[in-house]
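User: ok so my PI wants both of these folded by tonight, can you help

Assistant: No problem, let's get them done. Here's the first:
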Amino acid sequence: MTTDARPLAGKVALVAGGTRGGGRGIAVELGAAGATVYVTGRSSTGGRSDLDRPETIEQTAEKVTAAGGLGIPARTDHSRPDDVQALVDKIAAEQDGQLDILVNSVWGGDPLTDWEHPLWEQDLDTGLRLLRQAVETHVITSRFALPLMVARKSGLVVEVTDGNTARYRGTFFYDLAKSAVIRLAVAQAAELKPHGVAAVAITPGFLRSEAVLEHFGVTEANWRDGAAQDPNFAHSETPAYLGRAVAALAADPNIMAKTGRALATWGLYQEYGFTDADGTQPDFAAHWAKNLEEQYGPLGDPL
């Protein structure tokens, strides 16, 4: 039975790419809202992915359960159709065919992104690998997971991206990947609408992921010290903020009114009233308009 405190009790979610960062934040907050959450990725207690980071799907699943939900880790390589088919078969068998929320948050493209060179000077194999990892994985996952939602004529697909505008994102392959993910939400929304299933894209603002904290040489406990290196960091947000935005969308009985849209934490907090982990309500778009627009131009119009 759902309650105001646990609006997603009885719901089943799959967070693809839930090992760290935004995916972990989403998984944990879906758990806090009462959901059963399958947490997938390639980094597990059985071995690290090629990113060689310490976070694991098991750690995320434990956090989901500690938050009040049920976290189920399932090691999956989302670039492999057979892996994803096996994952969806597992969910269908264990949850009697129920899947209410699909979050496509697979990324892992940071080491593949070349911020220094234009397309014609970039390594082609690396760029194409980024696209396969950041876009094809989402397509593969939706291909196998959507039938569960269509059969039940309800559900929500969330495509996690960077930015909700057509603004160029600084380098060719990164821009193409993040823009394509928004288009995945638009296309899925069009095909799923007759079946009562919604699809949206969502972006955080300046996300304080584990890797970003390391980049600034700080922890979550003293993260504000990082603003000495970059004043914009003072307006960053935790993965929990993104997670609470997704949980609010998943609990919205009128979610179909948003299907096909590219959304952002800085707009959704105003509608749903959620806060970040420290009780604040970061608004990166407002910060941009006040401090960065004159130098870099408008952030862009929402898609």
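One down. Here's the second:
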Amino acid sequence: MAEASVKTLETRTDVSTPAAVDAATPPQARPDLLSRLRAPRRPRIWFEILLIAVSYWTYSLIRNAVPEQKAVALANADFLWRLEQALGIAVEKTVNHTVNSVTWLIVGMNYYYATLHFVVTLGVLAWLYRRHPGRYAPTRLVLFATTGVALVGYYFYPLAPPRLMETEHFIDTVLVHHTWGSMASGNLKNMSNQYAAMPSMHIGWSLWCGLTIFAVATVPWARVLGLLYPTATLVVIVATANHFWLDAVGGMICLAFGYAVSRAWYGAMPHRLPRHPLHTGPHPATAALLNRFRGQRT
């Protein structure tokens, strides 16, 4: 009987201990607002669709609002071309003319340039959202930070693409083959800033896709395709005379900045974070907005 009483008392003590510890936990040891803001949470589909739509609209608005400084952009293109010649990497014209001689290939590249830039990027975001929700927000932040810093490059370093250089005889493959491979060619050229070639977001975004797939995917063939995608994109942007090699380097630098921002905010590289978020409740910022909205209604 006495032994049973002892066991009962021990059990009660064990059950009550965590509550006592929680109550005794000093306020400074509890997670603060910043820590809760930085914790990855399960994304909300309506919020993500709205955020991506608004962000891309804002990006396009700012990019196209940058003054089109034609003289400066062409002068920068001449300088970059001479620099590549000095470095021995100025083979863009050779690639452009060689690929242009194969009609089916260059037409395919024109459509590649026009479509996959958006389709693959959105596809990777959707895949992360569905299969790796804990890594979605950190990886999305990489993409957003990369794109944001690219806008700074467009503003301070206007650059004409090779196809607009008047004396170098690059071929604008979209105009020659009557395809809609670029918003900056043909009937749509007035809708887009033609002198925002540095950095190349075709490379920034495709490399983001490739590295994300390579780091997160478990199927070997998917990882290989992830690495091939930015490689193929590099060939396409040069063959269509939309970018110099060094524009691609600019895109890579922007992507490195994006990863640095995400690493600083979340404390780890995106692929090293848990696949599923530890926190499933509403984001503190969302909760605050909802509480404020409910308070105004009442």
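The chain has a mean pLDDT of 82. The chain is about 70% helix and 0% strand. Good luck tonight!
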